[in-house]
């Protein structure tokens, strides 16, 4: 049987960009500097300027981008960080790794994004940080969140791992908090050929702290000033690939939006619920999350058509045994829990061809008709 069609694939994109990617690798390998050299510096400058902020610190992955950002913002043991349970688990893994306590609010029924209306009631005297996740490629409603942060003297860290180039009332994701964390994991809207991440900020003190934290806590070579430190550097080879791919980011997002528009048109009139875009948002469609009460049957039936789907995410974080220590019970975040049972993702990546997409849609329509 032919290779199934997956929700994400990079092989066609690699064929399209192979010369440039191989040249990036060769350029780094011949540069004489494999770690924290010119490529990282140049990518950091370009990535900061793309977001209209003054600093970018490249790190080894998105999870550590969040860990280091929280620590650089002064968040640690005893502090509470308000976020959502409907997210990629690493958001919460990162908060937990700092010793701070994640506190969850529920999400909106239509966008599955943080319900900002619930945040203020979750603020306690221990709250230090609000951590909105711009999930699936779409921004959280940031203006009311900023008001709450200012009223209670809290910092905002944006989790932008899924929201490269997304915009909210014209402002780009990552430019609205005290800091923002990005992942460049291969599937992400801007992805490398391995792991990578970055934190951006316009606060020079946060930038300075991040640079130490990713480098063992060293202030200069061989002298540790800040603990606990990490080795969380972005590799030169990934920085050079990312620097080149950043120039194509707007094109990737345009291609994703075209795929999304074709799905929305093809699925109109079915009982599959397609993504809602909140007012003022420009979606970058990291994943294309739809909803149907017979989700599990649909996924199973589509396998026979050679389409392998995915769920982002099947388990709300607060229901996972690793986070039982947080004390949430099933039933505590009803919108999140209901969504997790019915959502699933359709294939979404810039190089998805129209004919493959048509195949997916036709298979899905057949499966729906036979339910
Ligand atoms: C991917 C992701 C992360 C973690 O990024 P890694 O590079 O895989 O460590 C964090 N938060 C969200 C929302 C993500 O999607």
TrEMBL record:
| Entry keyword set | Aminotransferase, Pyridoxal phosphate, Transferase
Keyword Transferase assigned to the entry: answer is yes
Looking up SUPFAM superfamilies in the UniProt record yields: PLP-dependent transferases
What the entry lists under Gene3D superfamilies is as follows: Aspartate Aminotransferase, domain 1, Type I PLP-dependent aspartate aminotransferase-like (Major domain)
Q: Which organism is it from?
A: Streptosporangium longisporum
Question: Under what name is this protein listed?
Answer: DegT/DnrJ/EryC1/StrS family aminotransferase
> CDD domains from the xrefs?
AHBA_syn
Provide the organism lineage as a comma list: Bacteria, Bacillati, Actinomycetota, Actinomycetes, Streptosporangiales
One of its Pfam families is DegT_DnrJ_EryC1
Recorded superkingdom: Bacteria
Q: Does the keyword Endoplasmic reticulum apply?
A: no
Q: What InterPro entries does UniProt report for this protein, alphabetically?
A: DegT/StrS_aminotransferase, PyrdxlP-dep_Trfase, PyrdxlP-dep_Trfase_major, PyrdxlP-dep_Trfase_small
The UniProt entry's sequence similarity note says: Belongs to the DegT/DnrJ/EryC1 family.
């Amino acid at each position: 049987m032919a290779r199934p069609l997956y929700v994400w694939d990079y092989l066609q994109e690699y064929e399209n960009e192979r010369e440039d990617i191989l040249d990036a690798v060769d350029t780094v390998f011949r540069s004489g500097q494999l770690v924290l050299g010119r490529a990282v510096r140049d990518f950091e400058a370009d990535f900061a300027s793309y977001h209209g902020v003054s600093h970018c610190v490249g790190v080894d992955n998105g999870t550590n981008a969040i860990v280091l950002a929280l620590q650089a913002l002064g968040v640690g043991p005893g502090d509470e960080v308000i976020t959502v349970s409907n997210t990629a688990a690493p958001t919460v893994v990162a908060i937990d790794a700092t010793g701070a306590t994640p506190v969850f609010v529920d999400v909106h029924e239509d966008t599955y994004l943080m319900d900002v209306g619930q945040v203020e009631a979750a603020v306690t005297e221990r709250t230090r940080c609000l951590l909105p996740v711009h999930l699936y490629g779409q921004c959280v409603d940031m203006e009311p969140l900023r008001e709450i942060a200012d009223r209670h003297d809290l910092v905002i860290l944006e989790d932008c791992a899924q929201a490269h180039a997304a915009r909210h009332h014209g402002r780009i994701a990552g430019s609205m908090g005290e800091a923002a964390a990005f992942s460049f994991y291969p599937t992400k809207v801007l992805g490398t050929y391995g792991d990578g991440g970055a934190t951006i900020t316009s606060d020079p003190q946060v930038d300075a702290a991040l640079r130490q934290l990713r480098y063992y806590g060293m202030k200069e070579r061989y002298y540790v000033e800040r603990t606990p430190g990490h080795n969380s550097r972005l590799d030169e080879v990934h920085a050079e690939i990312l620097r080149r791919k950043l120039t194509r980011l707007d094109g990737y997002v345009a291609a994703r939006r075209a795929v999304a528009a074709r799905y929305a048109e093809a699925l109109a009139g079915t009982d599959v619920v397609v993504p809602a875009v909140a007012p003022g948002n420009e979606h970058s469609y990291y994943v294309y999350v739809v909803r149907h009460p017979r989700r599990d049957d649909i996924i199973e039936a589509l396998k026979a058509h050679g389409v392998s789907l995915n769920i982002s995410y099947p388990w709300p974080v607060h229901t996972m045994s690793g986070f039982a220590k947080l004390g949430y019970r099933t039933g505590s975040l009803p919108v999140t829990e209901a969504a997790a049972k019915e959502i699933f993702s359709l294939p979404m990546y810039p190089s998805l061809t129209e004919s493959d997409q048509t195949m997916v849609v036709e298979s899905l329509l057949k499966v729906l008709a036979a339910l």
